[in-house]
Every structure is written in structure tokens, then in C-alpha cells.
Automatic annotation (TrEMBL):
The chain crosses the membrane at residues 542-566. SMART domains: S_TKc (SM00220). This is non-specific serine/threonine protein kinase. It is a single-pass type I membrane protein. Keywords: ATP-binding, Glycoprotein, Kinase, Leucine-rich repeat, Membrane, Nucleotide-binding, Receptor, Repeat, Serine/threonine-protein kinase, Signal, Transferase, Transmembrane, Transmembrane helix. It holds the Pfam family PK_Tyr_Ser-Thr. Residues 914-933 have a biased composition (Low complexity). It comes from Arachis duranensis (Wild peanut). Belongs to the protein kinase superfamily. Ser/Thr protein kinase family.
Length: 943
């Protein structure tokens, strides 16, 4: 053939091969939708190269089984309008386009096509128009955050269809009209967060909005146009911890039913037209931040009931028509920090008393009628403001307390010399000029901010970012308003380490971390728009690399022709392997059926169907997110528990095989054993040994009918700790469980503990010995905060969860119960100068009223060591095992002794165990049910 013809023919063949290779993914609906999204939103992310977004290289895109399940692109410079193609991602679980201020236009109605969506986050964008009615067509939605946009119109009543919704945030929009009920917000019984402030809601707060069946923790309706009275029905929602109604036009009396809300820490009703007598809120014993300022209350003396509020940190009753003298005992409240009672008619002598709170930071009484001030031997170190009182203008006193309140936003950390920075850069506390990443932090629950110590939030954000591996030098905050009690906003500047600015990739990672903080902290972060000059040169480097890659494309074409056939062969082999990953396991070679898995049998579907009587409901012993658990009996008489995956929980074949290979290596008396598996007829089933006495959770709560005492609880803790220590140090490879909780500890016939449910477990490979970076999964309440923030899981994450389990054994309470986090409750209640560390009221009544709690203090000490904030400060599980053994020895018990089976009599081993009734071994939250993402378990911010 003529050489002149060879070259064009070769090019033609290469193009054909290239088209065939690329078409394997281009035909996928998700790929087409992503390319459309890329074009319409002007996405310019350097990692978005190649034809396969599921290759793992496309930043912000997560796939499962070749389908896009997560699109997370916060602060990536998206522009334009979201097209109707967004509805094409039928498997999408998470959509997060937050912090893209140039993303405008209406939210397309096709959003309602995303039937599997659990998280929709569009924070800080430019969306406008009405929220589409189709938003109510998302049955799985748990997290809905549309705050800081330009949405208008009304909330569609269809929102009441979101039965699984936990988090609803519509703050800072233009949404108006009445609050929808029947149907509407009143039907969202699982919702814990109603963040609806800074909108244009009008009309009365409907009484139907509240009911006793609601799980609501946060109610934010501040800065709207609401009228009428606060409905008395609000007192039915006893889980509430935060109520904000400030800056409305509410009138009438404050309902006395508020006294039923014993968990509320923040109550803010200022700047309304509330009238009648000042409410008596004695029953609200958890109040920390109370603001009743600027209303129309009747004239009254300083309320005596305030002297009983032992948890109060901040009191604001400015313009509240108060008169008389402030009792000296009020200033002795142990937690008191800020008192703002300006513009009233308070008179007499200001007397702090000899025992005023050592935490006091400010007493602002300007514009009252106070004639004298009794100081102690040493003047107070905190700020007192008595400006415009008789003591100042009648006697001519020039004391510092007669001067106006001065609140400086100057950062005391900055000791740098005069700045030599250019006008567009800022000087960091380490005296280097840079472009900081800036934004605004808004506190939802002001009681959780220390107004006199801005470094608290700075340290919190810095630690979170550095834990995520980001190069952060320092974080600086300043108040946005001259009076921080009028505005809960703070300006934040985040400075890069050893360079002028952050790269686009680092900006993206910071945005993810700060978004996650908003779901776990009492504040929201809103970044400022990033200008191109504020990005580091790494973006230019990426461009040069892109050009170089493009220049090499011709060479790649030459390789494609030779590689294509080989790739096709591998692809076919992988497809066969994925469809039947156990095809190379020959049952005839081993009694086990699988030579590679020496103690595991491959069951046929027919066998398992027979041993469960066709999966009879009578053999159904538990269910959960993964599927159902059935009790079965093998021909040998062995009892088994069969974990049968439902359709939406099934893994790919190779992933299922990998899980079996991992579990087959686990052999320990305190770990539930894998007996076998089934992978045929579209089924995925794991077969475990049957553990007859169910979950530790059901025993602690009494559901199982088994009750045991203090010594038995220590024994159970030892068994669970031994199982975990084995997984961490002796399994091959070592395993991090990631979901240790009382629901995942089983009790065998001797009531010994067995660790179970490895649905979230992670093997520790050689290259991951220090930590494993992974998507955060687990169960809220047990979750290690360090893991949550850094997304880096270690064995110490299991240690933290075990510490929570130990507190559960002590208290009998859930980790998060009625809005209270058991770790914080215990930590704040411990008094080592008292008997039982002063924890008598927290101890489970089932053991408190029984025999002596020998070794109790040592057990508490060990639990708190496991719950240290830093993983480095927590002991390894092997040390935990040794410590529990020491506790058992100290009270005369042998840790190695086997226990007898419980009898049906009323006592066993000194009344340590009793059986009250027959019981099902697995609850509806069985440990055999794989835990779901923490978004689906979200409770609240620990307080």
C-alpha cells in the first residue's frame, strides 16, 4: 500500500478506536448529565479531565456501581442557572452546591426527580423565585439547607411530605406568607431543626405547628414579620433547646407553658410587643441565655425567680420596665457572665455581695436610677457600666464605670509592627502579608459563644482545618457590630501557612470542612467571594500542566490503538468477575466450599430458604437499614442468624467478596463469627452464629427481659473491650470497627459480650497504619469528634465510642437523650471530692438501688480517659482491657472465670442477673443492620 495512504488510514483507525473507547462511558446518562452541568454552570475544575467521572479523579464527584451518588462542589465558582438536567441523576444521594454566589435563577422543578436524595445543600448561592412544590417529592430527604439565597414566595405545603427530614434551614431569604401547617411544618415530626429566621413570614404563629410528638430541638423564627401571640402549644415540644422569636411584632402574654421546656438553654424574645406581667420562668432550669429586652411588659420589681437560675450565663432585660433594687444574691449565680439591664428604672445601691460569680465579664446598667455602688476591698476586674445614673451625674464621679461601654474589635494577638502590606492584603498575627480566606460566622445558639474570649471560635476553626490537613497559619475573628449582643455575627479571616494565598483545591477542602462544622456546631459559616488574585499560583501551575497534557494527547492516541483490545479483554473479565466473583471457588475441593476461606461455607439459596422455613415471618428476628435478619437451623442443629440484604443495600459482587474475605479472618470468643454466605439468585446474605440473648442495648433498656447488675456490666465491658482489642491488634489485617455502640454488642447464652456488625469496618493496611482517610460514617452520639472533623479514622475512634458505651452501662441512658449529650453531662457533673464522684443521680436505677458499686470510680476514670478529645490522649484497647481486669481483681472477681447460664429464678450470682420474660433476641435496630450515614442519624449539636 502507498505510504501516502497508510498515514490517513492509521489516523482514521485511531479515531475509531478512540471513539469506541470513550463511548463506553459517554453513553451513560450520568455522564451526559454531568457534561451538561459542566457546560451550563461554567465548571472549570482542573481534575475534571477524561471521559469517566467515576474514575475517582473528578473532584467533588462520588460514584457507586458506576452511578453518580454525590455531587459536592461548594465554593468552586459555579455560574449561571441550574438546568433541568439535574433531575437525571436518579441514584443521587447528596447534592451540595453551596457558597457559589453566582449560581442564580430558580430551583428547577426537576429536583423532585431525585427520589434517593438525602442531602440537599445550596447554602449561600443566588437562587431566587419560589421553592418548587416538587421539593415535597423527595421521600428520603434528611438534610435541606437553602439558607442565604434570594428565595421568595411561600413555603410550599408539600414540604410536609418530607417524613424523614431532620434539618430544615431556610434562613436569610425573602420567603413570606404564613407558616404552612396541615399540611406543612407540623407534620415534620422527625425534624430537629427549624431555622427560618431573617425572612418575611407574616401572620400568627399557628398553634397547630407544635405537638408533643415532635423531635424539634431548634426553633428559629427571628427577624420576620410575625404578629399575634406565642401559642401556648409551644410547651408541648419538650425536646426544645433553643427558641428565637426576636425582632418580630409578637404581642400578648408570654405563655406560662414555657415552664414545661426544661431543656431550653437559649430563649430570645427581644424587640417585640409582648405585654402583661414579666413572665415567671422558674421551670426553665436549663436557661443559659435569656433576652426579654424591648417589649411592653408591666412595671415590676427585679424578679426574684432569677435568683434560682443556676445555669444562667447571660441576662438581657434592656427596656423591660424593671424597677427597685437588684438583690446582691443575683450576682452570686455561679455561671453568670453578662448582665445587660440598661434603660430601666432600677434604683438604690448596686451591691455585688461578697461572693459574686468569678466568671462575670460585664454588668451594663446605664440609664437607670442607681445612686450608689458598694465595692468590695478590691475593685472588680470586669466591666461595670453605670453611665447616666445618679451616681455619675449628681456626684460628678469620674470613675471608669461612668464611661460609655466600649467594645473593641481589635485583635489582641496582633503584635506586629506597622504593616507594610499592600492595600489588598492583610497582616496575619504572625506578621506576614497574605490574602486570607474570609467569611462571616453566625451563631444560632449564642449561649455557646464566650463573648469575652474570641479565641474560642478561632481555635475551634483552626483545629478543624488543620486536622483536615489544610495549611492554616492562624484564624482571626472580630465582632461585626459594635454591640455583639445585638448581632451574633463575627468576621473571620483564615491565613495560609508560609504562602500568600490558598489554592482553589484548598479553598474547596476548607469549604467542605466548614460546611460540616455547621452541621455539628452552633454556628454557620458564610464565605466571602474569592477574587482570582486571591488564589495561589498553583492554579497557574495546573493550567501549565493541562497544556502539557494536551500536548501529549497525540502520543496517547498512538498508545490507545495497541491498548484498546487489551482493555476490552480486561473489562470483560472484570464484568464476569463482578457478576460471579466466587466463580473460581470450587466447592468440591473443600468441605467448607471455599478453599480460600477455611472456616466459611458457601450456602445455596435453597439451603437457607429451607432452614428458615422459606424466610417465614416467625423467623424474622430483626431488621434495619441493611435488610432483615432471620433465625435458621442447619441440618446439624446449629442455630444461625442470616443477614439478608434488601435491594438498595446490596454491594457489588467484588465488594461483597472482599467483605467476606475480611470477616473470614476474624476468630475470637468476643467477636461474632461468620459461618458462611450466599451469593446467588440476586441474593447477598451473610450467615453468622446465632447469639441468643440479643443486644446489650435491649438489656440496658429492659426490652430483652434480662436485667443484670453492676459486676455483670463490668464483665460485659471487659468482653466488648477484648473483642475490640483483638480487632485492632491481632486480626489480619487489623480492623477499625467504626460503629461501636450498645446495639452492636450481642450477649451469648452465658451473657458474655460479642462485638458484631462489620458493615462499616475498615481494614488497616500497611500504608494506612497511622490513619485511614474516609467518608465519615457511624452513629451520632458515639461518633469520635476528632474523626468527624478530620475525616481520618484510627483505632482511637473506636476507643472513644467504647467510652460512650461505658457511660451507657453506668447511666442506662442513650448517648443523646432529650437533647442532652451524655458525655458532656457526665463530664460536667463529676466531682471527685464526693462519694461516687457525685454522680448518684445519673447512675442507672437498676444498679443504683442494688448492691454496692465496687470499683465505680475507677470505671468512670477509665471511661473519661477513653473520651479524651484528642485521640493521642486515649489509651489503646489493650490497655483498656488490662484496666478493666484490674478493676475486677480489686473487687474480688476473676476476669477469666466463665459464667454460668442464667437461671429462671429471680437471682443469679448475687442478684447480678435476672430474666423477666421471654424476648426476641434482636430489636428493630438490630446490630446486624448496617449503620447508615451520620446525616441519617443526626441528632443535634452536643451542648
Amino acid at each position: 500500500m502507498d505510504n501516502k495512504l497508510k498515514l490517513p488510514l492509521l489516523v482514521l483507525l485511531l479515531n475509531c478506536f478512540l471513539f469506541l473507547a470513550l463511548s463506553q462511558t459517554a453513553s451513560n446518562d450520568d455522564v451526559e448529565a454531568l457534561n451538561s452541568l459542566k457546560d451550563s454552570l461554567q465548571i472549570n475544575i482542573p481534575s475534571w479531565v477524561g471521559s469517566d467521572p467515576c474514575s475517582g479523579s473528578w473532584e467533588g464527584i462520588t460514584c457507586k456501581n458506576s452511578r453518580v451518588v454525590s455531587i459536592s462542589l461548594p465554593n468552586t465558582g459555579l455560574k449561571g442557572q441550574l438546568s433541568q438536567n439535574i433531575g437525571s441523576f436518579s441514584e443521587l444521594d447528596t447534592l451540595d452546591l453551596s457558597y457559589n454566589k453566582d449560581l442564580t435563577g430558580p430551583l428547577p422543578a426537576e429536583i423532585g426527580n431525585l427520589k434517593k436524595l438525602t442531602k440537599l445543600s445550596l447554602v449561600g448561592c443566588g437562587f431566587n423565585g419560589q421553592i418548587p412544590d416538587q421539593i415535597g417529592s423527595l421521600p428520603q430527604l434528611v438534610f435541606l439547607s437553602l439558607n442565604s439565597n434570594n428565595f421568595s414566595g411561600r413555603i410550599p405545603s408539600s414540604i410536609g411530605n418530607l417524613a424523614n427530614l431532620n434539618w430544615l434551614d431556610l434562613t436569610e431569604n425573602e420567603i413570606g406568607g404564613e407558616i404552612p401547617v396541615s399540611p406543612g411544618l407540623d407534620t415534620l415530626l422527625k425534624a430537629q431543626h427549624f431555622h427560618l429566621g431573617k425572612n418575611k413570614f407574616s401572620g400568627e404563629v399557628p398553634s397547630q405547628l407544635f405537638s408533643s410528638g415532635m423531635a424539634l430541638l431548634h426553633l428559629l423564627l427571628d427577624n420576620n414579620q410575625l404578629t399575634g401571640e406565642i401559642p401556648d402549644t409551644i410547651g408541648l415540644v419538650q425536646n426544645l433547646t433553643l427558641i428565637r422569636f426576636e425582632n418580630n411584632t409578637l404581642s400578648g402574654l408570654v405563655p406560662q407553658s414555657l415552664n414545661n421546656l426544661t431543656n431550653v438553654a437559649d430563649l430570645i424574645l427581644c424587640n417585640n410587643k409582648l405585654e402583661g406581667p414579666l413572665p415567671n420562668l422558674t421551670g426553665m432550669s436549663s436557661l443559659k441565655y435569656l433576652d426579654l429586652s424591648s417589649n411592653a411588659f408591666d412595671s415590676t420589681d427585679f424578679p426574684q425567680w432569677l435568683l434560682t437560675m443556676k445555669n444562667l450565663t447571660t441576662l438581657r432585660m434592656q427596656e423591660a420596665n424593671l424597677s427597685g433594687q437588684i438583690p446582691a444574691g443575683f450576682f452570686s449565680l455561679p455561671s453568670l457572665q453578662y448582665v445587660v439591664l440598661s434603660e430601666n428604672q432600677l434604683n438604690g445601691t448596686l451591691n455585688l455581695g461578697p461572693n459574686y460569680s468569678k466568671k462575670l465579664q460585664l454588668i451594663d446598667l446605664h440609664s437607670n436610677s442607681i445612686g450608689d455602688f458598694t465595692q468590695q476591698n478590691q475593685p472588680p476586674s470586669f466591666t461595670i457600666v453605670l453611665e447616666s445614673n445618679p451616681i455619675c451625674y449628681e456626684t460628678g464621679t469620674t470613675e471608669s464605670f461612668c464611661k460609655p461601654l466600649q467594645i473593641s474589635d481589635e485583635n489582641p494577638q496582633n503584635k506586629c509592627p506597622a504593616s507594610g502590606c499592600s492595600s489588598d492584603k492583610s497582616l496575619s498575627p504572625m506578621c506576614h502579608c497574605a490574602y486570607p480566606y474570609t467569611g462571616t460566622v453566625t451563631y444560632r445558639a449564642p449561649s455557646l459563644y464566650d463573648w469575652g474570649n474570641s479565641t474560642s471560635i478561632e481555635a475551634d476553626i483552626k483545629q478543624a482545618l488543620q486536622s483536615g490537613g489544610l495549611p492554616v497559619e492562624s484564624v482571626v475573628s472580630s465582632t461585626r457590630d459594635s454591640n455583639p449582643f445585638e448581632c451574633f455575627d463575627f468576621i473571620i479571616k483564615i491565613f495560609p501557612l508560609n504562602k500568600d494565598s490558598f489554592s482553589p483545591s484548598e479553598i474547596y477542602q476548607m469549604s467542605l470542612v466548614l460546611l460540616n462544622l455547621s452541621a455539628y456546631r452552633p454556628y454557620d459559616f458564610y464565605p466571602d467571594k474569592i477574587e482570582p488574585k486571591q488564589l495561589s499560583n498553583s492554579s497557574n501551575t495546573a493550567l501549565l500542566i493541562g497544556v502539557a497534557v494536551g500536548g501529549s494527547f497525540v502520543l496517547v492516541l498512538l498508545l490507545l490503538a495497541g491498548v484498546y483490545a487489551f482493555r476490552q479483554k480486561l473489562r470483560a473479565e472484570r464484568a464476569i468477575s463482578r457478576n460471579n466473583p466466587f466463580g473460581n471457588w470450587d466447592p468440591s475441593k473443600s468441605n467448607c466450599g471455599t478453599p480460600e476461606l477455611k472456616a466459611v461455607k458457601q450456602f445455596s439459596f435453597k439451603e437457607l430458604k429451607k432452614c428458615t422455613n422459606n424466610f417465614s415471618p416467625a423467623n424474622d428476628v430483626g431488621s434495619g437499614g441493611y435488610g432483615k435478619v432471620y433465625k435458621g437451623t442447619l441440618p446439624s442443629g446449629q442455630l444461625i442468624a442470616i443477614k439478608r440484604a434488601q435491594k438498595e443495600s446490596k454491594q457489588g459482587g467484588l465488594e461483597f467478596k472482599a467483605e467476606i474475605e475480611l470477616l473470614s479472618r476474624v476468630h475470637h470468643k468476643n467477636v461474632v463469627s461468620l459461618v458462611g454466605f450466599c451469593f446467588e439468585e440476586g441474593e447477598q446474605m451473610l450467615v453468622y452464629e446465632f447469639v441468643p440473648n440479643g443486644t446489650l442495648k435491649d438489656t440496658i433498656t429492659g426490652k430483652s427481659g434480662i436485667r443484670f447488675g453492676w459486676h455483670r456490666r463490668i464483665k460485659v465491658a471487659l468482653g466488648a473491650a477484648s473483642g475490640l482489642a483483638y480487632l485492632h491488634e491481632h486480626a489480619d489485617p487489623p480492623i477499625i470497627h467504626r460503629d461501636i455502640k450498645s446495639n452492636n454488642i450481642l450477649l451469648d447464652e452465658k451473657l458474655d459480650a460479642k462485638v458484631a456488625d462489620f458493615g462499616l469496618s475498615k481494614p488497616i493496611l500497611d500504608y494506612d497504619k497511622d490513619h485511614v482517610t474516609t467518608q465519615v460514617k457511624g452513629t451520632m452520639g458515639y461518633l469520635d469528634p476528632e474523626y468527624y472533623i478530620s475525616q481520618q479514622v484510627t483505632e482511637k475512634s473506636d476507643v472513644y465510642s467504647f467510652g460512650v458505651l461505658m457511660l451507657e452501662l453506668i447511666t442506662g441512658r442513650k448517648p443523646i437523650d432529650r437533647g442532652k449529650y451524655i458525655v458532656k453531662v457526665v463530664r460536667n457533673s463529676i466531682d471527685k471530692t464526693k462519694d461516687m464522684y457525685g454522680l448518684h443521680e445519673l447512675i442507672d436505677r437498676a444498679i443504683r438501688d442494688g448492691s454496692a458499686l465496687n470499683g465505680f470510680e475507677k470505671f468512670v476514670d477509665l471511661a473519661m480517659m477513653c473520651l479524651e478529645e484528642s485521640g493521642a490522649d486515649r489509651p489503646p484497647m489493650s490497655d483498656v482491657v488490662k484496666e478493666i481486669e484490674i478493676i475486677l481483681h480489686s473487687i474480688g472477681l476473676d476476669p477469666a472465670a466463665d459464667q454460668s447460664e442464667p437461671s429462671t429464678s429471680s437471682s443469679f450470682q448475687h442478684n447480678e442477673v435476672s430474666l423477666e420474660s421471654s424476648h426476641q433476641p434482636y430489636s428493630s435496630e438490630s446490630l446486624y443492620s448496617s449503620s447508615e450515614y451520620i446525616q441519617k442519624h443526626h441528632e443535634h449539636e452536643p451542648r
